[in-house]
Request: fold
Amino acid sequence: MQSLVTTTWLADQLGASDLILLDASLHLPAANRDAEAEYTAGHIPGACFLGLSNLTDTQSSVPAALPRADQMQDRLRTLGVDEGSRVVLYDDSALRTSARAWFMLRRAGLKNIALLDGGLGKWRAEGRAISKDVSEPAVSNLKVEQDDRLVRDKAAMHANIGTGAEQMVDARDEGRFTGAIEDTVHGLAGGHIPGARNLPFTKVLHGDGTYRDRVQLRALFDDAGIDLDQPVVASCGSGVTASVLLFALHIAGKDDAALYDGSWSEWGADPVTPKKTGAAA
Reply:
């Protein structure tokens, strides 16, 4: 299975015994949308609801922290995911949150994971089937051992400043990155980590939410000042849209890029961390 699948491919695969289809939608509070209620009202046939909003480590001081291994294991077992599953993720979110789920599942050790290109929006636009039936998969015995080699914390990001050891790319819009506007999503002033480059996540997508191709994506990162032959760490507001860049990097052929889990919601809230405004240096 390719890591990015089309609506046509998925339509042909629906009902396969090894296919696990997960709705990974999540919305900002300002969107005034209830992802689970929308799933209940209508979803791709056979899909289960992942529940990204409560799949965070509330024991961590990091806002919206990635989940612990036990949380991932419990959730994935309940959803029927096992080592042999082919997992397809989709969303109906402006934040393209299925990429966040993709990063989580990779971190949890799953190998056969894909995103539905264009998500539920493209599926609906093509007039494909929508169901209100709620699947009840058999609980699996999946064992999750998370790999955090591609996760960075605040200390690591601070130590990296000025070293050039890892390039930083920020997925937020230009206004928040430069500090021209406040980061109202997180109630913080705008700005960025010193040395970071800016590539708004929306630029790696076409207007219909499908991903640009490998050549286009490599050109976008190059234009942003990111050398794909060197280490890269992605950040954003809280680690969600940074995952869109990480998936775009994956399409572009780079699978060793890391995520700064706390992102600006952690960095920007700390009065001690250095911050920059204006365009990337």
Summary: Residues 13 and 58 are 36 Å apart (CA to CA). The chain has ten helices and ten strands. The mean pLDDT is 96.
